[in-house]
Amino acid sequence: MTDWDSLYAPRARGMMASEIRELLKLLDRPEIISFAGGIPDPALFPRAALADAFARILGDPARAAAALQYSASEGYLPLREWIAAYMGGLGVPCSPDHILITSGAQQALDFVGKLFVAPGDTVLVARPTYLGALQALNAYEPLYAPLPRPGDNNAPLPGSGKRALGYVMPDFQNPTGLSLDLAARQQLLDAAAMRGLPLVEDAAYEALRYDGEALPPLLALDAEQSGGIDGSRVLFCGTFSKTVVPGLRIGWIVAPRPVIRRLVLIKQASDLHSGTLNQMVLHEVASALLPASLTRLREVYARRRDAMLAALAAHMPPGVEWTKPAGGMFVWLTLPSLIDAGGLLPRAIAEASVAFVPGRAFHADGGGANTLRLNFTLAEEGRIAEGVRRLGNLLSREIAGVA
Amino acid sequence: MTDWDSLYAPRARGMMASEIRELLKLLDRPEIISFAGGIPDPALFPRAALADAFARILGDPARAAAALQYSASEGYLPLREWIAAYMGGLGVPCSPDHILITSGAQQALDFVGKLFVAPGDTVLVARPTYLGALQALNAYEPLYAPLPRPGDNNAPLPGSGKRALGYVMPDFQNPTGLSLDLAARQQLLDAAAMRGLPLVEDAAYEALRYDGEALPPLLALDAEQSGGIDGSRVLFCGTFSKTVVPGLRIGWIVAPRPVIRRLVLIKQASDLHSGTLNQMVLHEVASALLPASLTRLREVYARRRDAMLAALAAHMPPGVEWTKPAGGMFVWLTLPSLIDAGGLLPRAIAEASVAFVPGRAFHADGGGANTLRLNFTLAEEGRIAEGVRRLGNLLSREIAGVA
């Protein structure tokens, strides 16, 4: 037999199968209440509007011919125009040639890694940070370091290369649910400017705000201070996965034109273009439904977030702390330091029929053993309350056993 | 302004925008007869069957919920089962866990590069070879060398790394339209075995045979000689882009299970998964229509191939040679050595209203200036004859001018 391991490029060493992901694949038993996924409730998908759009486009021979054919790597122009207008509403004035359509925000992260990160370069991330960003960037063999904080702007970077890149999710971060306030956004931009650091702004959850007023994206602040997007150093990654549906795999990057031109070459080399029909359908559905359809999404998810926070307050034993997110999909728990969430998961599934994602995988440095992530968008309130009760009982026993 | 070029990883140097591609983007004037694309005729797309499948899936709440949701990185199981049966028909006995669904064959090439190619490794390619393969692999900074031929099995490789990978399109190659005969397939496998070389078999045009009997894929031959796919060193890349439609972006890789497990991690890190709904629709349409629907495709494309070959015989001046493909989408022209096809293209568009792809971009070593590729699947016979006549007249003047 071929010794395949000996034939792989060194970057393959960073691509490890997650035991936890394998475990979580087994969660289709109906008695299990899973808070593990990061997925929207399919009951809220605009199924009828999508079905109508598919039927309308495929019912028109000329549009169907275009929709089913190869198309431009940049993406479907009317969709890029719609996104440009949407970005304008977020305080980011831009044009379609500042936009590349990607297959979800995940592909945007892969492309940014491909363009900016060579082995030994530094990627600066929050602690914890989005697991999928670490997976996308690991293929390019970076070293990781913490994002700059006020006061340490000139600390040396660990990487051997001169290049560095920052990655941040300013709104309702996956996994903590927390956002950067306006002062933190400005500090991050100042620190990035001082270092000449490009910043990847992952805005996957930006539209899912349940309380308070929207804050400007990093790109809006930076473009205003830099005389427009073409002077900015922020690469904004957006997606329809949370606001419409994930299964069509459509997201986007907004960036200065020279960067977009490079990313278009990467798109062409990587998969030619995103699905043509899916882009046309999302253009129709987004034009017709957004942002109005977000009102319903926010109402439902806010109630579930409230149910989860109430259940946590009712059922968690002393020593367990959690975030109170103003949006997004997740609550982040910190357990007493002796409790290992990864070790607890198999027992949570077996003994309490409840699942979560242990927090270690969200830490580029391997820490966070006593943390875990709970999703509140998929289950209904009653299930959320019951699942948190089960988890609270398990944790109470666990903490009593350790104490 | 940011000096973006200074911030890119070294691999970005291999990603150059093609002037020719920019030129070919401008070909939407109706008087131009373009042989430049590599695209199927949309009049042959199974539009009604696709529309029905979309309507059926989206009309069923449970199926729609799955179709619009996140899904497994491996791909939709029933589609992988269908592909496994299809591969069985090609002489490749395999199971769904030998298969990863990709976003077209282009993404399969990118993933193979990501898994197997580090800077300085060697990739062995035909001369000429598929331009898109060079674009996908360039991101991983290989050196290129010719595929082994009989008698030079032990020639040293140019790369500094110990790793090497072969890439080949055995059936109706893009750009030449030529196939490897059975002896050449066996010689290539023998040479690869001697070197311990993994071989990427790009089967994009495999189903588009107009004359003669099908030859076994490299993977079929190698699996038979190696006791099954898991003992083979061939990675087979297939696609629905030529047999159904390209716009849904669905292709696949068949490979030994350890390689598929690695590729699944790459898929997850790169874009999570291919469009769920598109996979479900292609499963329905392929199950219902293939292979019967290929009969019509082959009839139409064979007539167009014949029209192109007849027009070339009628209109090309002495000194121009061309291939006579038994399938696929392309005829390859070799001009007298002093004629530069790249220089000729702007005049062909401006003076003769006809377009083609100059051959240099298909050469990893930059040669092939006097070659060009003609596509015969998009235009109807009358347009093909007229376009070849125009090109023949231009070449006659050009050759007379050089002589």
CATH topology of the largest domain in chain A: Aspartate Aminotransferase, domain 2
Helix coverage percent of chain A: 40-55%
CATH superfamily of the largest domain in chain A: Type I PLP-dependent aspartate aminotransferase-like (Major domain)
* Class of secondary structure makeup of chain A: alpha/beta
The overall number of domains of chain A is: 2
Question: How does CATH name the architecture of the largest domain in chain A?
Answer: 3-Layer(aba) Sandwich
Question: Terminal Cα separation of chain A, in Å?
Answer: 51 Å
What's the total count of β strands of chain A?
13
Strand content of chain A: 5-15%
Oligomer: homodimer
Order of helices and strands of chain A: HEHHHEHEHEEHEHEEHHHEEHEEEH
Shape of chain A: globular
- Biggest chain pair contact, residues each? A-B, 83 and 83 residues
Within the largest sheet of chain A, what's the order of strands? 2-8-7-6-5-3-4
Broad CATH class of the largest domain in chain A:
Alpha Beta
Q: Give the helix tally of chain A.
A: 13
